[in-house]
Amino acid sequence: MANITLFAQAIGKLPKECIRKIIREEKTDKHSKGYDTWSQFISMMFCQFSGCDSVRDISNGLNSANGNLNHLGICRAPSKSTVAYQNAKRDSGVFRRIFYALLAHFGQQTIWQRTKFRFKMPIKLLDSSTITLTMSLYEWAHYTTKKGAVKMHTLLDYDSLLPEFVNITDGKCGDNRGALDIPVSPHSVVVADRGYCDFSLLDYWDSRNVFFVVRHRDNLLYSQIEERLLPETRAQNVLIDEIIELTGEQTKKKYTKPLRRIAIWNDEHGYVVQLLTNNFKLSASTIAQLYKARWMIEIFFRNIKQLLKIKSFIGTSRNAVETQIWTALSTMLLLCWLKHIAKYKWGLANLVVSLRLNTFTKIELEKWLNEPFTPPPELAGEE
Asked: Is beta strand 238-246 parallel, antiparallel or unpaired with respect to 271-277?
């Protein structure tokens, strides 16, 4: 049996020296009295691991494990007022930097395997997720006259299914405007839905040698330049493959180059999907498969909303909300890494629930990850 809890062993997988270096550079521990940035980070990760609904739950939960806090690098459990105050006041930017440091750390640990696509261009899935809020409590989160909201504009790497970049805005920020602040590396493929069919944005990507696959609206004005041959035997769901130029008064000013338009019949739902791309080499069926792969980012949003505390917040200020989002994203990275290194074929939901039930259980993490349902040695032979 291990002498430290599962939660402490999971936290031990984090690159502590790297995190503490970021904290020193950000100088967020200046004038702190006991409850430093590391303690706040671990407290918020505990909030995600154990599913806490309030600052009282965080304080009471850590208080119940007083004898195990030294393994987490925490001197004592914080009071609920301390957690609330620091979430509101300590700059959330430090947790943003920690998230990207963890992304780089876990991304370098192994080669994440790609499936389905043979070409070498990196595939990036782009979408946003809206988290609605009560306008009377979150006055800064502008959305509608009656509701507030924050948006997570997310660029997901297809190989690792980890968020490569996240831009947090209020609910009024459109998908196309939110995407302008997301850096996309040249010679990669961005796959996005209709909200990103903004020709200024597409021209911006094209000028930086970024390939895109986006769904276009039905009212698109264009003229055909060339009709490409359709496959005779394979990919019978491809209805149209053509080269077009835009003819709309505004759109042709924003995007002056030819585009490739592909229409695909969606057999499952019974409608036509119309796509635009600036890639003229990949087959139409591959373009269709790329757009179908976009569903993986919807699964990512579903997981983070259902499995972690991100739909309800324990603070009402913008800083507190962003602190909770960044620490939730950091927790998701750690959970995905644990799932990745485990020999047992965990579903992410099962892993999260099992960790939540065994947060302070003292058992070897690797053994538990690999053989979670193996009976104790003294019971194994009693049958």
From this structure: unpaired
CB atoms within 10 A of CB 347: 9
Q: Under 8 Å CB-to-CB from 249, ≥6 apart: which residues?
A: none
Answer yes or no: are the C-beta atoms of 54 and 62 closer than 8 Å.
no
User: 141-158: buried (b, 16+ CB within 10 Å) or exposed (e) per residue?
Assistant: bbbeeeebbbbbbbbbbb
DSSP state of 231: P
Tally of CA atoms within 13 A in the half-sphere of 306 that contains its CB? 10
Q: Which residues contact 360 (CB under 8 A, 6 or more apart)?
A: 5, 6, 7, 64, 65, 68
Closest alpha carbon to 156 in 198, 197, 215, 112: 112
Q: CA-to-CA distance for 32 and 61, rounded, in angstroms?
A: 22
- Cα–Cα distance, 8 to 72 (Å, whole number): 6
Burial-class residue 358 by CB neighbours within 10 Å (0-12, 13-18, 19+): middle
pLDDT tens for the 383 residues of the chain, in order: 578 899 999 999 999 999 999 999 999 998 887 899 999 999 999 999 999 999 999 999 999 877 778 888 888 899 999 999 999 999 999 999 999 999 999 876 655 555 667 788 899 999 999 999 988 889 999 998 889 999 999 999 998 888 999 999 999 999 999 998 899 999 999 999 999 999 999 999 999 999 999 999 888 999 999 998 887 766 678 889 999 999 998 999 999 999 999 999 887 778 899 999 999 999 998 999 999 999 999 999 999 999 999 988 999 999 999 999 999 999 999 999 999 899 999 999 999 999 999 988 889 999 999 998 776 555 445 54
Q: Is the pTM of this model over 0.85?
A: yes
SS (H, E, C) 327-373: HHHHHHHHHHHHHHHCCCCCCHHHHHHHHHHCCCCCCCHHHHHHCCC
DSSP of 116-182, one letter per residue?
S--S-S-EEEEEEEEEEEETTT-TTSBSSSSEEEEEEEEEEETTT--EEEEEEEETTS-HHHHHTTS
Q: Which residues contact 232 (CB under 8 A, 6 or more apart)?
A: none
